[in-house]
Design a protein that fits this description.
The protein has about 130 residues and is mainly alpha-helical. The protein has seven helices and no strands. The protein is globular, with a radius of gyration of 14 Å. Bound molecules: protoporphyrin IX containing FE. The site of protoporphyrin IX containing FE (HEM) has 23 residues, from helix 3, helix 4, helix 5, helix 6 and helix 7.
Length: about 130
């Protein structure tokens, strides 16, 4: 049977209920590597938080094999490609991943090492796609 990552979607739902989850994630991300903060220097962080909320939902659906989000994922990959508005060097994605799981571990009352593994598995396809399109 196909893995739709419902456990990860439910965990994400719990994280979003602790309403500063996305803001906390950005704080962790900014401090995770010296090149992060300058990349967001000209970004409207309110708008960015809303974009990322949707981005994470799409990423989890994409990991579950949903065709509905392939267009969205392609657009996000373009934005982060060498030629895009916000190019992201492939080696930076591990900091993004580590920052997100840290934010989840802080926010989800049901966080566990097993759930962290599931999150990492769910976020890997979108990151692989971004790297492929860099
Ligand atoms: C190290 C990793 C990453 C960095 C440094 C980064 C940085 C950025 C920056 C600077 C922007 C542009 C904001 C602007 O328009 O001013 C952006 C947009 C965005 N990012 Fe990322 N990003 C990263 C990874 C990701 C990942 C893995 C996802 C998906 C889950 C994602 C989803 C988005 C979305 C949805 C937008 C908005 C695109 C739009 O405005 O059309 N980002 N990112």
């Amino acid at each position: 049977m196909q893995d739709e990552f419902n456990d990860v979607q439910r965990s994400y739902g719990r994280c979003l209920q602790s309403n500063n989850f996305i803001a906390r994630f950005y704080d962790i991300l900014m401090d995770s590597h010296p090149s992060m903060r300058p990349m967001f220097a000209r970004t409207d962080l309110g708008r960015q938080r809303r974009a990322l909320r949707r981005g994470i939902t799409s990423a989890i659906l994409y990991a579950g094999g949903s065709d509905l989000v392939s267009g969205t994922i392609r657009e996000m990959a373009q934005v982060h490609s060498r030629a895009g508005r916000a190019p992201v060097k492939p080696e930076l994605y591990r900091y993004w991943m580590n920052s997100l799981v840290q934010a989840v571990n802080e926010a989800d009352p049901q966080a566990s090492p097993a759930l962290e593994k599931r999150w990492r598995k769910a976020l890997t396809p979108v990151i692989d796609t971004f790297v492929e399109h860099y």
